[in-house]
Write a structure and sequence with these properties.
TIM Barrel; 8 strands; 8-stranded mixed sheet; 20% strand; alpha/beta; globular
């Protein structure tokens, strides 16, 4: 798997660690179950730590710990399960999470732009994805009707702004 962060292919600094595996010296992503079982130990680490949430695990359970988490990885188990989109928006907008929000699992190229709009700034993608494919997919649409976590102007607000400018000019 490759990691795209803020639109660029980067080396992943984090190791995803199983519940029975020893923690590495460096940055690690653990399951929610491990986070809950070893919370104090993990919070006290000198290395960055992240939590991976499965599709049915609501982000509200880690809301009080977001200041200690460098990464929240939200799992897409199948193309037809989009709960992680809602969870991403909740983390960004309701809980004010500013750290890395990573899409993992079944991350499909036709969903890149939607993931970014919902607040994801990092995507684990298949090895066959190139920078050109990512750029094409992530920039496919240039105008949006719905507001989203990315803060891009909607078509309605653009129309209103242009109408106000035209009215002021006349």
């Amino acid at each position: 798997m490759q990691l795209i962060k803020n639109g660029a292919f980067v080396e992943d600094q984090f190791v995803t660690v199983g519940d029975d595996e020893a923690l590495p010296e460096g940055a690690a992503i653990v399951s929610l179950e491990r986070w809950q079982a070893e919370r104090e130990t993990l919070r006290a680490r000198n290395a960055p730590v992240g939590v991976r949430l499965k599709s049915g695990q609501e982000p509200s359970v880690i809301a009080g710990d977001l200041d200690k988490l460098a990464v929240v990885a939200l799992e897409f188990p199948a193309y037809r399960n989009g709960r992680a989109y809602s969870y991403a928006r909740l983390l960004r907008e309701r809980h004010g999470y500013k750290g890395e929000l990573r899409a993992v699992g079944n991350v499909l190229r036709d969903q890149f732009q939607f993931m970014i709009r919902c607040g994801f700034d990092a995507l684990e993608v298949a090895d066959n994805i190139t920078p050109e494919i990512f750029a094409e997919c992530a920039g496919f649409f240039t105008a949006f009707y719905q507001p989203a976590a990315d803060g891009k102007e909607t078509v309605l607000s653009l129309r209103q702004r242009l109408a106000a400018r035209a009215q002021a000019a006349s």
